[in-house]
Each structure stands twice: as structure tokens, then as C-alpha cells.
Amino acid sequence: MTSEKKEIKLVSNIKYGGPYQQELIESQRTGTCIFCKSTFQSQVLCEYKGWILLRNTFPAMDSQGGHAQFHFLAVPKKHSKSLWLNSRGLAAASHLFTWARNTYEFEGGAIFQRVGSPKFSGMTVCHPHVHLVVPRLDANGDSIPVYMAVG
Ligand SMILES: [Zn+2]
Prior knowledge:
The chain is α+β, with helices and mostly antiparallel strands. The protein has one domain: HIT family, subunit A (2-Layer Sandwich), CATH 3.30.428.10. Helices cover 32% and strands 15% of the residues. It contains five helices and five strands; from the N terminus they run αααβββαβαβ. The chain has helices at residues 3-12, 18-30, 38-41, 87-104, 118-121, and strands spanning 46-48, 51-55, 70-76, 110-112, 130-134. Strands 1-2-3-5-4 form a five-stranded antiparallel β-sheet, covered by helices on one side. A hairpin with a 2-residue loop joins strand 1 (46-48) and strand 2. It starts with a helix and ends in a 17-residue tail after the last strand.
């Protein structure tokens, strides 16, 4: 399989559409990684041991068509082709998410990471990263579910 075919396959893996899809298509067209772009690197909220914490520019959608209250990404500054994290990377992500919790004072959420082949994980940016998603609340104070795709 040529690398060109591999990239086309990744585009077909995009499920979110709109501006996010355009950003990914542009990234693949120019051969630049979204997380390595200076615009992302300039949005750093916190940094720890070579990892940065960002707000996701395209936060996850919830079941009512809105966006999660918070959608953070913990990302290593250095690009890696390995899409599996080691214990050092997970520890750095945990540190950054603790900082986010203490800074933004939310009560809970979910941490997840897509790993390995995008065919199985559904990963669209092939640079290791970990998500922390905090749902928003409805008028009754109940959380509005956020669903994340895998595969
Ligand atoms: Zn990258």
C-alpha cells in the first residue's frame, strides 16, 4: 500500500464533517500534522514534561447537538508515529488533566485515548493524544451525554 492510499483511507475515517473535516483534509493535502502546527502549539494552557494541554478546537458533540462543556487534549510536543502511549506519557497526561480540573473546577468527565491503527481506533489526527471530555448540564442540572466513536 502506498502512503497516498493510506492517507485517503484516513480521510474516509472522518465522521465529524464541517470545519474539522476541512482542517484534516488540508492537513493531509499539505502533509502537516495538525498538532504540530504552530497555531495549535500557541494555544497551550499548561505544559508538563514535554506534553501540552489544549482545548480541542473542535469539541465533541453531545446528544442534544451542542458541544461538551470542556474538551481538553493532552498532546506530546514531539510528533511520534507510535500511536500507543507508555506509562510516562500517561502520567504526563494525568498531570495535565489534574491541572485542568483544578483550574476550571469541573466535577467529573471521561478520559479516553484512541490507540493503534486508525482503522480500529477511529483516530483522525495520527499524533498521540489523550482526551478529557466534560459534559455540559441541562436546565435541570443533569449531564447531557457525549458519545465518542471508536473504529
Ligand atoms: Zn504531529
